[in-house]
Amino acid sequence: MRLSLLLALPLAVAAAGAAGPAEDPFRQANDLVRAGDYPRAVALYGELARSGNESATLYWNWAQAATARGAHGEALWALLRARELDPGDRAVAREVERLRQALNLDPAEIAPEPLAVAGRFARRFRLDLAAAVLLVLSLVAHALARTRLRPAGAIGLAWGTLVLGLAAAALPGAAASLARPTAAVVRRGAPLLDAASPSANPAGTLREGEVVPVLDTSGDWLQVEDNAGARGWAHEADVRRLDRAPAAVSQD
Amino acid sequence: MSQRLGGARVRRLLAGLLLLAPAARAEFTLRSEVDAHKLGVQDQLQLTLTVEGSGAPDEIPLPTLVNLDVVAGPFQSTQVSIINGRMSQSRSYSYVLQPRSVGKAEVGVARTGGQSAPAIAIEVVAGRLRQGEPQRQDPLGRDLGDPLEELFGRRRPAEAPRLLMEAQPSRTQLKVGEPLVLTYWLYTQVSVGDLQFKEAPQYSGFWVEDLERPTTPPSGEPATVEGNSYRRFPLVKKLLFPTRAGKLTIPATPFRIGIVRQGFFDSGGVVERATKPVTVEVEPLPEAPGFSGAVGRFRATASLDREAVPLGEAATLRFRVEGTGNLKWIDRGPSLALPGVKVFPPQSKSDLRTTPQGIAGWRTWEFVVVPETSGVVEIQPLAFSYFDPAEGRIVTSETAPLALRVEGGSAAAGLAGAPLASAVARATGALPLRSDLGKPAAKVLSSRALLALTGVALLLHVGLWGLNRLRGGVARGVGRTASSRSIRNALRDLERAAREPMSKEQAASLVEKALDEAFGAIEDADESERARLVRALLDDVRFVRYAPQLGDYSDKLKDLAARAAEAVRRWS
Prior knowledge:
The complex is a heterodimer. Chain A is an alpha+beta fold. Chain A contains 9 helices and 7 strands. Chain A has helices at 2-15, 23-34, 38-50, 56-69, 72-85, 90-102, 114-124, 127-145, 154-178; strands spanning 182-185, 191-193, 202-205, 211-218, 221-225, 231-235, 239-241. Residues 1-19 of chain A have low confidence and may be disordered. By secondary structure, chain B is α+β, with helices and mostly antiparallel strands. Chain B folds into 4 domains: 7-130, Sandwich (Immunoglobulin-like), CATH 2.60.40; 163-283, Immunoglobulin-like, CATH 2.60.40; 291-413, Immunoglobulin-like (Sandwich), CATH 2.60.40; 484-571, no CATH class. Chain B has 8 helices and 31 strands. In chain B, strands 22, 24, 25, 26, 27, 29 and 30 form a 7-stranded mixed β-sheet that branches. In chain B, strands 11, 13, 15, 16 and 17 form a 5-stranded antiparallel β-sheet that branches. The chains are: A alpha+beta, B alpha+beta. Chains A and B meet through helix 1, helix 2, helix 3, helix 4 and helix 6 of A and helix 3 and helix 4 of B.
């Protein structure tokens, strides 16, 4: 009884935050895509994402609309965001690779943070839940070993599950706390400025589709470092974060 | 300030205008001359290289000099001669040379354009030889005149040469932006050598273009001015466009004209002549919305470089205006706004040439357009308004409407710069959409939650261990805490004592050892249940061990071992 309760706890946490029904605007956006009205479709997808209805499917369709519109950097960002939400989606991974090649980007240029890969691995295989289950199991085994029943191997089981649980908890924990947030360049020729201001001097140009670590933020501006090591500020309309839903989507 | 008729371009113009021989024919002669073949080392020598005829190169290289240094030059002069209705041109390059030392000097062979002039030998002696040369001007400034005058009597004074310059506009009433041709005529009765603008001509209020040089040089034509017969030659033609309305005056333009020597004792001369001021009446253009400011006759066309374009790719819309007028002025293209299409600022190209009727040719504005939605982009007619002087009103030329078909969704759209794009592009555009929004992504435990969970688990483990320790201590009371290994060893020994065949002393000793390992020394003051039990067990074991061998103790020993094992399990 106690074991089942302990197992149910993290599952309940994981299921928390489920979004309400948003199928109608989603279908409406899909219809707009089929009608060729990509700008409005993308705007609708953006509203859905900002209202907390993020899913890999939403970003998949967003990417298709952006691709059809010729905005390949935005399409790659949407797919990368979909991959963040559902790392096990093979179609998304395949499309990410295709767009990466189409944009003539090196694999390292869309994966500047190795720990982010570990984070996706942890999310894909739900290492957080596994860690919770193993830790609970180790406690149960330990408790059993301390009773008069003293089942054979209880202590060993307690030790083993404890070690595995700690290891499973360490990977997503380290990835979440040590990996820098990243963002993808969604606009061709996006300027890299030397200050967080539209009137600042340009320090260079970011490559469309390139994924860059976010070093700092200031309002709508992100301080990023491109793959050549150049640091500067880019507007959030040009560079969208991969660790959260887009705050605002510029259509022009 | 004197101004030559403009450098190489004017030289070419004069050559083309004045030479009767076709300009394209390379017929010229080259002369190399010095003004002395013997001179003192302190004297200076003038070297003159002269080309006569047409087709000569613009420059004549200086010949090799032996024992001579250039102290000045080259001085270039152009001679245009009009003699007996025929024109000829010569160009001269003069150098002032200084001998280095007494002895032989030489001006080497002069070469240019396949022609050559022989070398000139010069003898250099000590001192100065040229001081005693006859002077044509005495120190007091009196003109000594022709030395033969005393012998043959003074000639009658020469008449002033009859020369006129005229600036003739092609019209005197026109509108702003309309062209007029201004021709500078030379009226002459004598042979003319050099001809220069004395001052730069002023064209205030006009845009000036040089007319293209005629392919065949014009010949002179007879003309009568105030009863005097002349031969007149068009020297320069300018195309002028008034830039403002009102009375515009082109002021008098002075010329300096060199006269060719007429006789043996005539040294020629230089006279100055000026054109009369020219005044033209310029009317303003009518005003109308969208009027480009173009004056002339034009035709506007528009075209697309392709009929269909994949969505996201660019097409080029070319707006072209061609005709004759002041097209060179017009640099602003039509404004182009297409809904759903990104229109980039146009790039302008032109191919224009100057004609007496105006500037003829075409100018295009190329707009790069990138459709943002699929379907058909309708491009409405584009208008170009201009003033037609023939009709006296503003005319609008419109292009035909155009349509650009935008095919939806190419994966390679907009990726012209990506070499691998075509290789990986899907042939059928974007992938199908997913129909269900799907469940939101499951939230993962945050690093803080994981840390808390790990901490709680570790604390609980420690708590369980500590609780067990605490409980074991209370249960055992004061006594040694046996390790799990000791307990395992004790239980193993007890099992051996009960099962394996051995003497009663050995078995009893094994049981006693196991109890000692599990419980240690039991203090006499310890009156707990555990201590009493262990003491009782030890008493029984010792009894069996030291009792005389009067019977079989195996059952007794098995019983002792079982009781001891139970005590170990319970209390250790």
